[in-house]
């Protein structure tokens, strides 16, 4: 058996161990995210953020991962929506692995959430992480981020650019 075939078999076997209901929920959310992504591409900044703040948080995660995939980026979806330890997925940018944390905020983001995510990035030993959110980034969080060189905040216009398929990273 060729290595690619073995890898495919292992992935299929792992997925089959997920409860059928969980697999179905993921497939449905991914399908919904594809349709919503098309719709969102027509929105501008304030309208898009208002819309994203109201959708299901799991759909928000899937929209982000689908947007990366549509840009030709390799992604890894997390198979758990809750209890995921702060990891919603992975994306490979310029050959480097970045963790993704998606937060659907209506107000200011939590500095503690950002710091916990940064700790996860250090633990996983990856190139960095993208903390993608729909809220506002307060001064206290910006100050804390100066010490966290591995976490990049993606919000506002950067989030719009990501969803619309435009360059947003660095």
How many strand elements? 5
Output the radius of gyration.
16 Å
Give the CATH class. Answer: Alpha Beta
Tell me the series of helices and strands, N- to C-terminal.
Answer: HHHHEEEHEHEH
Helix content: 40-55%
Name the beta content range. Answer: 15-25%
CATH 2nd-level architecture: 3-Layer(aba) Sandwich
| Total helical elements | 7
Question: CA-to-CA gap between the ends?
Answer: 42 Å
pLDDT averaged over residues? 87
Anisotropy-based shape: globular
Q: How many domain modules?
A: 1
Find the CATH topology: Trna Endonuclease, Chain: A, domain 1
Given helix and strand content, the structural type is alpha/beta
Strand arrangement, largest sheet? 1-2-3-4-5
Model regions low in confidence, pLDDT < 50 over at least 5 residues: none
* Largest sheet, strands/sense/barrel: 5 strands, mixed
Write a structural description:
By secondary structure, the protein is an alpha/beta fold. It has a single domain, classed as Trna Endonuclease, Chain: A, domain 1, CATH 3.40.1350.10. The protein contains seven helices and five strands; from the N terminus they run ααααβββαβαβα. Strands 1-2-3-4-5 form a five-stranded mixed β-sheet. Strand 2 (89-93) and strand 3 form a beta hairpin. Helix 2 crosses helix 4. The protein is globular.
């Amino acid at each position: 058996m060729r290595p690619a075939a073995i890898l495919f078999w292992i992935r299929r076997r792992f997925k089959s161990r997920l409860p059928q209901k969980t697999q179905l929920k993921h497939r449905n959310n991914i399908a919904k995210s594809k349709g919503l992504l098309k719709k969102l591409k027509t929105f501008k900044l304030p309208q898009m953020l208002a819309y994203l703040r109201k959708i299901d948080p799991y759909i928000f995660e899937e929209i982000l991962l689908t947007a990366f995939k549509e840009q030709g980026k390799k992604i890894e979806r997390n198979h758990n929506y809750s209890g995921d330890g702060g990891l919603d997925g992975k994306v490979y940018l310029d050959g480097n692995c970045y963790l993704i944390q998606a937060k659907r905020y209506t107000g200011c983001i939590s500095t503690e959430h950002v710091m916990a995510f940064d700790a996860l990035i250090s633990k996983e030993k990856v190139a960095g992480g993208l903390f993608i959110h729909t809220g506002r980034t307060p001064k206290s969080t910006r100050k804390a981020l100066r010490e966290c060189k591995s976490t990049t905040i993606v919000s506002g216009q950067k989030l719009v650019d990501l969803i619309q398929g435009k360059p947003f990273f660095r």
